[in-house]
Amino acid sequence: MVDVAGYHQVISTEHRESYERDGYLQLPGFIDSNTLAGLKKASDEFVELSRELRTSGKILDLEPGHTEEEPRIRRLNSPVDHHETFRDFSFVGAAAELACALLGGPVRYHHSKLNFKWSDGGEEVRWHQDIQFWPHTDFSPLTIGVYLADVDQEMGPMGVLPGSHRGTLFDQYRPDGAWDGAIGANDLETLDLTDVKWLSGPAGSVTVHNCCMVHGSLPNNSPRPRPLLLQTYSRADSYPIAHIGANGSTGALSGSVIGGDSRQRIVVDGREIPGAPDWSRRGAPTIFGSQQQDT
């Protein structure tokens, strides 16, 4: 269990104010060496596993050209579902503590992924915003990233556009109506990308960005992979909206509350709804059973 009393000790007031103002944080060397070593070891296990694969599957997404001798991995999907080290880090470790500190705790876990961005051309991630992929009932969701290796400018670090989390939420469909997952060329012309901050740093550095932040990354042109572990959280009173985007396909642990309990409250059109308990995993009782207090 995350220590509620210790939330305020994780980051400073200045960090919280900076995040609220700019929509992101960069925390060099935030993760201790033992924790980092454990995450690297777990990551390496999946690299070895990938050598047995020829095509992408539900767990590992492979780049074209992947081979047993020269593995090239794009992503490990939902690492918390596949390895205890990632699960502990996201639910009781530094990532959970930081999320609670920034959002005032408790928080609701949404999903995780490990993007490898392999060496010698690992793929670009075009400018985009996250919230369109998995809309919530508010804009509190944030994503905490951890660099598992030293990241310099040649490796395609994540870039963020400070303050853009308070701006336009862009349509990320192509003109033909197909989902593109990126901001269109005409909309990009409205943004001053000269203000982008490229978040490089040593292994163990942490990035945080709000769900509305315009962000992306360039190809990795170095001879070294750039593994970035990502986990997304919202406030506990924020809920993913079903049937839009990735919501509903983010893993068995998605929706778990960390650092306390959910009050099951939601505000719609200015009116607070004191909601019923979460029955999604055990089935809902009938109104008769609830009102008669059946056991």
Q: What is the 3D shape? A: globular
State the helical fraction.
10-25%
**What's the domain count?**
1
What integer is the average pLDDT?
A: 92
Element order, helices and strands?
A: HHEHEEHHEEEEHEEEEEEEH
* Low-confidence sequence ranges: none
Number of helices: 7
- Structural class based on helices, strands and sheet pairing: alpha+beta
Supply the CATH superfamily name: q2cbj1_9rhob like domain
Q: CA-to-CA gap between the ends?
A: 29 Å
Structure summary, number of beta strands: 14
What do you see in this structure?
With 295 residues, this protein is of the alpha+beta class. It has a single domain, classed as Sandwich (Jelly Rolls), CATH 2.60.120. Helices cover 20% and strands 21% of the residues. It is built from 7 helices and 14 strands. The strands form 3 sheets. Strands 1, 2, 3, 4, 6, 9, 11 and 12 form an 8-stranded antiparallel sheet that branches. A 4-stranded antiparallel sheet has the order 5-10-7-8, with no helix packed on it. The two termini are 29 Å apart.
How is this fold's topology laid out?
Elements: H1 7-10, H2 13-22, E1 24-27, H3 33-50, E2 60-62, E3 73-77, H4 84-91, H5 94-103, E4 107-115, E5 125-128, E6 142-147, E7 158-160, H6 185-188, E8 197-198, E9 206-210, E10 215-217, E11 228-235, E12 257-258, E13 265-268, E14 271-274, H7 287-291
Antiparallel strand pairs: 1-9, 2-3, 3-4, 4-11, 4-12, 5-10, 6-9, 6-11, 7-8, 7-10, 13-14
Summarize the structure.
With 295 residues, this protein is of the alpha+beta class.
